[in-house]
Amino acid sequence: MKKRLIGGIVAAALLIPTAAFAAPTLIEILTRTPMTAEQVKVDEVGKATLEKLYSAFPETKLFEIIEASSVQGVQTSIILQEKGGTGKKFTLHTNAITGEIEHVNQENWEPKLKPLITLSNQEIKAKVDYLIDKMYGNITGYEFAMEQMDNPDQKTVILNYTKKGSKTPFYQVFVQGNTISVSLIGGETTPSNTQVEGLFSTNGKPDYFADAYLNDAKLFSLLKISPTELKEELAKGKSVVEIAASKNISKQQVIDVIAKTQVDLQIQGENNGDVPKNNRSNEQLLKAIEPKVLQIIEYKTEAPSKK
C-alpha cells in the first residue's frame, strides 16, 4: 500500500471509525474550539463542507447546525439536524488542510419502528451505496464485502468498498441502529514487502486507519523493528509510544520521524500535482500533522468483544 499524503489522510486519524460505536474517540485528547452556525457559514472549510452536503441532499438546507467545532487547524466538524431536534441528522468531519470530507454519519433516515439495521443486507447495502454515491461519487467500479461484527451488545455491520487491485478498503462503513458511518480510507495498491496492512484491529477485524502513518521505513529503522514485528507488538495491546520507550526512544523522536515523512509526501504530492498546493510552510505542515501522529502512536488495539 502506498503511503498516503496528508491530503488524503483518513479522518480516522482523528476520529477512529471503529471506535465510533465502541468507545470515546481519541480526538477528545485534542483541543476543540467551538464554532457558531454563523462562523461555520463564513469559514472557508465549513462553507465548502455545507455546500457539498446541500448539493448531495438539498433538504439539509433546512436543517439546523446544532454543533460545530475545529481541532487545532486540522479538522472541522459540523452536526446538522432537522428542526425540532429529533429527526434526521448529519455529522461531517472535514480535513481542514485539504477540505476533503473524510467521515460522514447519517442518522435517523429510516422510521424508528423499522431502523436501518433491521433491513435485509441487500437493502442496507443499497442505502450505503446511495450515501457514498451522493457524497463522493459513483462506486460502480468498487469491489464489495459485507459482514457482521462480533458485537454482543448491538448488531453492527461493516461494509468495505475496495478498488480493484487494492487490498485496503477505499471506503469503510459501519451500520448500527439507525446510523450509517462512512470513513474515507483511500486504500491504494497492494503492499510492498516492507509494509503490512491492518496494523491495528478491532473486534478481531483489521483496522487500516494507522497504516498510512506507521508503514514508514524510517520509523522501522528508529525502532529497530520489522513491519511484521511491529504489528505483532501492537496486537499485544501495546502502543507505539510504549514500544519505543522499551527501546529508550522518546515520544518526540517518534513524532518527528513520522511527521517528517508525511510532510515530505505532501510536498512531493503537490509538486507532482497529485494534491492541491497550499500556502503553508514546512514548519506549519509539521505542526498541523503532529496531533494526528500523536493519536496514532498512543492508540492501543482493541481486544475482541466477548460474548
UniProtKB/TrEMBL annotation:
<feature type="signal peptide">
    <location>
        <begin position="1"/>
        <end position="22"/>
    </location>
</feature>
<keyword id="KW-0732">Signal</keyword>
<protein>
    <recommendedName>
        <fullName>PepSY domain-containing protein</fullName>
    </recommendedName>
</protein>
